[in-house]
Design brief:
Layout (H helix, E strand, L loop, with lengths): L9 H9 L1 H29 L13 H62 L1
Amino acid sequence: MECEHGQSSLFFWYFVGSGKLMTHMRVLTRHVFDTWLVKVCKQQEYRMGENRLTCVITIFSPLQAVLHFERQLLVSFWCFWRRRTAACLEEQEDLARARDHYRNVLLLNAFHLWKQNSQERKVE
């Protein structure tokens, strides 16, 4: 890797060779995340008009994270299933209503035809 002045950066290769680069990147990423989280908490605090920090920072263990993910997945699936079931039931009700309407129209047309035929017979 070249520096701004065209010289090889021994510092960069020291980081890469020793594996400290990934550790440095993790620390830097954690710092950026923590800074972002504090900013979000302060915005939330400002919006709520409170003088104390309302955002709680919780560090989950890997097991808690897996359990949380599985619970969120289950809740997501349940909500999706409930929406789809409600949509299917609504569609079935609409089809039944349409079928009943069609039958009523057929009966009404048959009644009008019968009435018209009976009036024609009376006239004859």
